[in-house]
């Protein structure tokens, strides 16, 4: 028999349910105040059970807040499970569960503000003698806690460039390092809905106190340019950038531009290295409060602890910034328990309502926020998640200000910033607002870090801390085992001062970081078929929406085309290709793939793939190792966008070029390993063919590295055999960017006809320049008539031939990723006016016949066309054959100008 206090945690006295502090199997006997109770069902760690009888329909309470209602009379010891939580746990194969849920989620009724009862309280009392830390004083704003040279890409078009440029400064000494800010935004044609957010974030990054020097990089003629940032800053009254800085526009070959940009950065290095830390007031400490991979104990241990330390920082004159708007829906009353004034309260509620509306335009509600990992770890719904997340605002602290995403800080005290619940996107906004330190609380053990702002990570339980000791900074779980909160607060405050003064955090020691800015949202208002009801809920019948909105699969049958007799094909030789044969498949490559299941494991996957390539973990069984980092799988909405995401991921796992594939989960995401196991089964694939690793469950970076290495090394596969084939065995995507002449259109049509005529397949983008050109359509299909898509984004076709992939946007990297997921083995892109980034998995061959492009970017081109269309098509096909035969590595790949990004479609949005 176990005592209740050994296994149960009551968030607040008076709650009628408790949180289980460990897994309790069905049949376990618990002593409830002298009464022995046998548990009828298994209760997982972090899940809730009843502590006093609850009648049908009565509310179930945590922190005195109704989060669900009983579906039947519940007795002491009964397992509290909602339909959502029961489904999530059942999917993990847990035994001993009830057949039916015992509760239903409490509806999210709109919060009604009683203005007459609002507590317009005082902020916590300042300390008599404010403290100091060792920081880097700046001419304007607070001091820096770090001293970085930052290479800032204005859009995704320059992200590969700044990443490679930063790599060339690896090992720079005397300061905290040269870091890239590479992101996914601003790369489409047209004006994105998040343009204001993007410009504000980039401006804020450049002004962050941890930035000692900054190079801002754009490309010619792009919307989100250095000039656009200058104009935005002037219009909005931003102060000038006072650290060493420059604006650089890419306008030549990649290597030449790297050299030119490097010359701008090099003189800054000794200047930055000469700067020294000085004693500065703790009022210069601006802390962003975040949570990720939350669990049932987040609101009991880690979040209250981070809030208590933030309270002490405020008492010393500093700033704390709460964010993640959708993770406070349901906790509005707690946030407004103590507020500066009525306008601040109203602005907070207006911000929440605006977030609900934006999400609603895309067919979603805040109820969709908790990830699969959240639910599995005991956060059944958004109410439980929100009331726990709100504990980062200490009970004694007043809400002083409400700001927009990335808005400059309006004053000291406690600030709320509008942002999505996606951790990385939210952190980026806080950094842009001026935060120079991040508190990150986590239940599962999120290892997220930012490139130039240190992160202190608080883990909720001692068990999880011991598992991930190398990646975590603070064991908040000691509160659950008896350590007084005041003692923990004092200890953690001291650590905060030390880290602000230069002591490396666990994340900095691990060397892992990434950036994601609040991603563009497609809808800018209500859509037909999606409506918001008066109580704030979304009603929709997505089946009635156009197939393009839902990105529904298509039959996958090729276009019916007639071959125009007036144009001869360029060759009858078939363009021989040397393929690799293995496991009964012939392909240009036999790839070893490490596929992160969400954004949070992406950078780790990159590091593992690089190590696997260098150390030959798979021996000669694969031709190269590839990782595909992206921004999806957690912190984004479900529905149509999730279906597209899952289809895309399976497309790479089952790609004809993939020989070995391992899925790497972070451990708390919506789309975890078990999620993809079930998806593979649905697709008719055998999950045992694939490797599975978990950063959190396996015990951190060192442990997961060993697991991945051992899996790839556990096979004794023969080397692929070289065999002869033709381009007719390939699936090739054709693309044209920039000016498209009649001659170029005919050339690309001839290339496609050769491949299809030889038995291969050609895929085109529904939004690409080729399909909008009547000359191309006639030369390729024998008719100038418009054609419709044959496959959805990332969908595999059923029959070879000419295919058109439906693309939801024009972003090049999302287009290339869709091609690859559809089975494309190579992209041939005709470029005019500039070149493209390569895709990590699918080789991108860049070809041009434009004299100006050849003159400026010739070093980046893989082939140059001249002569008539037949002669140019010959050149293009030979380039395809050379890359497919591995005789030539595309220039963009060789230079390091690579990327990968998954679309959210038309209905995906950050949450």
From TrEMBL:
Transmembrane segments: none annotated. It comes from the Bacteria. Pfam families: GD_AH_C (PF20629), GD_AH_second (PF04295). The keyword Chloroplast does not apply. InterPro entries: GD_AH_C, GD_AH_second, UxaA_altronate/galactarate_dh. The keyword Glycoprotein does not apply. Residues 135-271, 593-706 form the D-galactarate/Altronate dehydratase second domain. It comes from Kribbella orskensis. Residues 283-521 form the D-galactarate/Altronate dehydratase C-terminal domain. Keywords: Lyase. Belongs to the UxaA family. This is Altronate dehydratase. Gene3D superfamilies: 2.30.130.110.
